[in-house]
Amino acid sequence: MRILLHCCCAQCAIYPLKKLRKKGHDVTGFWYNPNIHPFTEYRNRLEALRYFEGIEGFPVIYKDSYDLEKYLKKVIDELDNRCRNCYELRLFKTAEVARKEGFDRFSTTLLVSPYQKHSLINEVGEKVAKEIGVDFFYEDFRPGFYEGKNFAKENNIYRQKYCGCIFSERERYQKKKGR
């Protein structure tokens, strides 16, 4: 099966790529992350994915545009639903590219994170799949989260400290302050 795998970062791509390849799937990455803030974080993650692409022979399609305004417009009116809206924004673009490029399915590396909302990602993925006409591939990759994290550390791949959005960055610092 040809799968287009949305990549939020290199660290989170490591285990899903390994697992999908082991099952015999042909996997191509897709970079589209207008939610990542600040721009320096966006660049760090983008460069890390390019580095990982090179060491793994992992082909990646890049939509390298810092569409912060698009992300903010999508989430600002419903901050309590910002994760849903962010997932929709990124998975919709992934599914569009998957359809255009003839992939069988699309998925996301967000599914490796124990910090993401898996049932919500799956719900959004299925909704987008129906709208776009390309199946969503769900698998719980969380068992490999630390394997990916360790591989990234051993191979000097940038490791982020928060999901990427300005709101999660704020929450990260508020938690530190509260300690």
Structure report:
The structure is a single chain. This protein has 179 residues and is an alpha/beta fold. It has a single domain, classed as 3-Layer(aba) Sandwich (Rossmann fold), CATH 3.40.50. It contains seven helices and five strands; from the N terminus they run βαβαβααβαβαα.
Mean pLDDT: 92
Number of domain modules:
1
Strand order of the largest sheet: 3-2-1-4-5
- Quickly give the CATH architecture: 3-Layer(aba) Sandwich
Number of helices: 7
Low-confidence stretches: none
Summarize the structure.
By secondary structure, the protein is of the alpha/beta class. The chain has one domain: 3-Layer(aba) Sandwich (Rossmann fold). Helix 2 links the parallel strand 2 and strand 3.
Primary descriptors:
7 helices, 11% strand, 5-stranded parallel β-sheet, Rossmann fold, alpha/beta
List the helices and strands and how they pair.
Blueprint (H helix, E strand, L loop, with lengths): L1 E5 L3 H13 L3 E6 L7 H18 L3 E3 L5 H8 L6 H20 L3 E4 L9 H15 L2 E2 L8 H10 L11 H13 L1
Parallel strand pairs: 1-2, 1-4, 2-3, 4-5
